[in-house]
Amino acid sequence: MAILPLVHIPDPILRAPSKPIERFDGDLQKFLDSMLETMYDAPGIGLAAVQVGEPIRVVTIDCAEREVNERGEEDPDPKREPIFLINPEIVATSDAPNVYEEGCLSIPDYYAEVERPAECTVKFLDRDGKEQTLEADGIMATCIQHEVDHLNGVLFIDYLSKLKRDMVVRKFTKIAKQSGKPFIG
């Protein structure tokens, strides 16, 4: 496994639709493991392949509660419940809305409240290529919708006002220009 470099806005790859996975092999399994390791290292609860520069329809998610001790320190050996969504398709959403403060590994240190459906149903292939269906609510539903949006070239800032979205993009464009490494962080 390897920690993969994260792609940040304004890299145009984040706006490109991702291609479906057609072959399950050892290379895909290694990539899934590296994506998971990258997500945990970041740290995050979801990661789409396009966020590490691979525009393929692959997502890793782990919304398991992180245990924190009385000193406010996270458990060094946390309970992990990773889910791999390959070629995910959201097939149903609830009418009831839910608002969460979202962040994104491709937009570091920026958070905003986003309204999405409170529940969703997603069909996908699991790590072994078996078809699965998952009904989700709460933070899991939000995370699934956020990551599937990535696969479609949509970012959570697209749900914000044009003014807020433009301010974020300008900030990260300026950072990219100043760093001399235009897009990959």
TrEMBL record:
<feature type="binding site">
    <location>
        <position position="146"/>
    </location>
    <ligand>
        <name>Fe cation</name>
    </ligand>
</feature>
<feature type="binding site">
    <location>
        <position position="104"/>
    </location>
    <ligand>
        <name>Fe cation</name>
    </ligand>
</feature>
<dbReference type="InterPro" id="IPR023635">
    <property type="entry name" value="Peptide_deformylase"/>
</dbReference>
<protein>
    <recommendedName>
        <fullName>Peptide deformylase</fullName>
        <ecNumber>3.5.1.88</ecNumber>
    </recommendedName>
</protein>
<feature type="active site">
    <location>
        <position position="147"/>
    </location>
</feature>
<dbReference type="InterPro" id="IPR036821">
    <property type="entry name" value="Peptide_deformylase_sf"/>
</dbReference>
<keyword id="KW-0378">Hydrolase</keyword>
<dbReference type="Pfam" id="PF01327">
    <property type="entry name" value="Pep_deformylase"/>
</dbReference>
<dbReference type="GO" id="GO:0042586">
    <property type="term" value="F:peptide deformylase activity"/>
</dbReference>
<keyword id="KW-0479">Metal-binding</keyword>
<feature type="binding site">
    <location>
        <position position="150"/>
    </location>
    <ligand>
        <name>Fe cation</name>
    </ligand>
</feature>
<comment type="similarity">
    <text>Belongs to the polypeptide deformylase family.</text>
</comment>
<keyword id="KW-0648">Protein biosynthesis</keyword>
<keyword id="KW-0408">Iron</keyword>
<comment type="function">
    <text>Removes the formyl group from the N-terminal Met of newly synthesized proteins. Requires at least a dipeptide for an efficient rate of reaction. N-terminal L-methionine is a prerequisite for activity but the enzyme has broad specificity at other positions.</text>
</comment>
